[in-house]
């Protein structure tokens, strides 16, 4: 595996783990770190031994957001030329399920990174927030868009304008996250969820993700056309034949991801 | 480092003593803040296995220092800025907390005692929801805890009539775990705290968590929560020690880990 500076990666039973690894800075995101996260995700996405990707943070926090030291000196032209947010677009292209396993602070860019995940599991005591407004700026890596599509305009404006700290229970109530667990078992519960997904037919997992994501951008009619195509595609997979055969024979299916 | 309280660690017990005896330990914003800081400190210190809240002098705590309240005071802001964070800190603390009520616990002083897990009282002490006497309502989480401890009808009676609740009545109502004599109060509190110190501290924290979770979870979700908590408890050293001691027919020596 390639060497990374700001993240750690491991693989275990078909699950590719990515740990943000600047614990003393509460995993604040610098540009190089985001680049590494994207590279690791793309690597796992191509790796046939990986079914599911887990994104987590080392230390107390998931991520306290962008590295402000790095950003304080930026100007408009430099930002345009750097085009740093293009890296974030690549996260949206990952086909395999991404599980975010979060705790402590999930702030700013850290919150945006969490919103890129398909499943979010949070430890009790996790706090979500967009504090950008208090620095005279705003979310720039999808925060205003992803959060609004998730919770609607009313709450998105409230949370982003006020920089309020949202508790895990509140995030759960608004459908931002899937599950709240006690901190001691965050890793175990994340692993359990990853294992559950890893045992599903991989092609169906990815075509479902693709179709569900289309629902965010497409009209209902276009989305349904898209869904239909993906549905048909699965009928050319071995897993579809095995799945239906196993159902008829009343046994467990043995999926191969083909 | 504290001015309005004292913080002392004695045989794994963190004593937080309100230390404004001249005012019967009345709260000021600084005291709210210092209690919060002290509770946080005790919560994160592995050597602490029990927290005792007590008052210096003849009272436990007489509630808000009314001498600093004038017509410009925004009471709601005081709660939001000072009392709320203090009570939150107590509420989220996973270590066992004993309120050692050595004398009067009135107004927010009663609220402070209610935020503890155990209340033990000296014979001469009493509780009083004094807020009504100045036209206010019980605050600092008071009614949240009180209605759960004694039920709606009694909580209303105590809050509306604002009478003293002496140790005998407190005992009947379930507001106190034990009543100790005035003369031996400090020793008896320490003995009780030592009893708590010897228990598996992590399990106590998980019991507190589960009781809180039961307030808002559906039964099915509570059972999941309980199962997860039990896996956490099952992974502690104290569980291993408990099992081992049971098999060896001896008293367990819990480390709190």
Automatic annotation (TrEMBL), chain A:
One of its GO terms (molecular function) is enoyl-CoA hydratase activity. InterPro entries: ClpP/crotonase-like_dom_sf, Enoyl-CoA_hydra/iso, Enoyl-CoA_hydra_C. Signal peptide: none annotated. One of its GO terms (biological process) is fatty acid beta-oxidation. Its EC number is 4.2.1.17. Pfam families: ECH_1. Keywords: Lyase. Belongs to the enoyl-CoA hydratase/isomerase family. This is Enoyl-CoA hydratase. It comes from Lysinibacillus xylanilyticus.
TrEMBL record, chain B:
GO terms for molecular function: catalytic activity. It holds the Pfam family ECH_1. CDD domains: crotonase-like. Gene3D superfamilies: 2-enoyl-CoA Hydratase, Chain A, domain 1, Lyase 2-enoyl-coa Hydratase, Chain A, domain 2. InterPro entries: ClpP/crotonase-like_dom_sf, Enoyl-CoA_hyd/isom_CS, Enoyl-CoA_hydra/iso, Enoyl-CoA_hydra_C. Belongs to the enoyl-CoA hydratase/isomerase family. This is Enoyl-CoA hydratase. It comes from Lysinibacillus xylanilyticus.
């Amino acid at each position: 595996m390639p060497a990374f500076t700001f993240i750690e990666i491991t693989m275990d039973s078909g699950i590719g783990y990515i740990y943000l690894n600047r614990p003393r800075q509460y995993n604040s995101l610098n540009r190089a770190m985001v680049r590494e996260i994207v590279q690791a995700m793309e690597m796992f996405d191509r790796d046939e031994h990986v079914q599911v990707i887990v994104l987590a943070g080392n230390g107390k926090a998931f991520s306290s957001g962008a590295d402000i030291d790095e950003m304080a000196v930026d100007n408009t032209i430099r930002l345009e030329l750097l085009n740093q947010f293009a890296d974030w677009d690549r996260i949206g292209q990952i086909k395999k399920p991404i599980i975010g396993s979060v705790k402590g602070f999930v702030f700013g860019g850290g919150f945006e990174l969490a919103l890129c995940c398909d499943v979010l599991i949070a430890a009790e005591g996790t706090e979500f927030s967009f504090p950008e407004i208090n620095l005279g700026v705003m979310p720039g890596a999808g925060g205003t868009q992803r959060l609004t599509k998730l919770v609607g305009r009313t709450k998105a404006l409230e949370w982003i304008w006020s920089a309020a700290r949202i508790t895990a229970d509140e995030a759960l109530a608004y459908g931002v996250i899937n599950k709240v667990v006690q901190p001691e078992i965050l890793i175990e519960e994340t692993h359990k969820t990853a294992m559950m997904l890893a045992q599903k037919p991989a092609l169906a997992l990815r075509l479902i993700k693709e179709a569900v994501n289309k629902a965010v951008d497409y009209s209902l009619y276009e989305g349904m056309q898209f869904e239909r195509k993906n549905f048909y595609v699965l009928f050319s997979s071995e897993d579809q034949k095995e799945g239906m055969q196993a159902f008829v024979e009343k046994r467990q299916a043995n999926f191969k991801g083909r | 480092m504290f001015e309005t309280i004292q913080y002392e660690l004695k045989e794994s017990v963190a004593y937080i003593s309100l230390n404004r005896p001249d005012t019967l330990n009345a709260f000021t914003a600084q005291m709210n803040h210092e209690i919060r800081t002290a509770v946080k400190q005790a919560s994160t210190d592995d050597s602490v296995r029990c927290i005792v809240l007590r008052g210096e002098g003849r009272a436990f705590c007489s509630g808000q220092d009314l001498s600093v309240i004038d017509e410009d005071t925004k009471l709601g802001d005081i709660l939001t800025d000072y009392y709320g964070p203090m009570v939150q800190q107590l509420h989220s603390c996973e270590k066992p907390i004993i309120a050692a009520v050595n004398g009067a616990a009135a107004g927010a002083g009663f609220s402070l005692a209610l935020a503890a897990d155990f209340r033990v009282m000296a014979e001469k002490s009493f509780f009083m929801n004094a807020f009504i006497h100045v036209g206010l309502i019980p605050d600092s989480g008071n009614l949240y805890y009180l209605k759960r401890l004694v039920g709606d009808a009694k909580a209303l009676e105590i809050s509306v009539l604002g009478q003293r609740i002496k140790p005998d009545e407190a005992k009947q109502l379930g507001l106190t775990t034990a009543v100790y004599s005035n003369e031996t109060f400090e020793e008896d509190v320490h003995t009780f705290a030592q009893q708590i110190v010897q228990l598996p501290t992590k399990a106590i924290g998980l019991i507190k968590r589960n009781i809180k979770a039961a307030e808002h979870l559906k039964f099915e979700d509570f059972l999941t929560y309980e199962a997860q908590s039990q896996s956490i408890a099952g992974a502690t050293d104290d569980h291993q020690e408990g099992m081992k001691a049971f098999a060896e027919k001896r008293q367990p020596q819990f480390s709190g880990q």
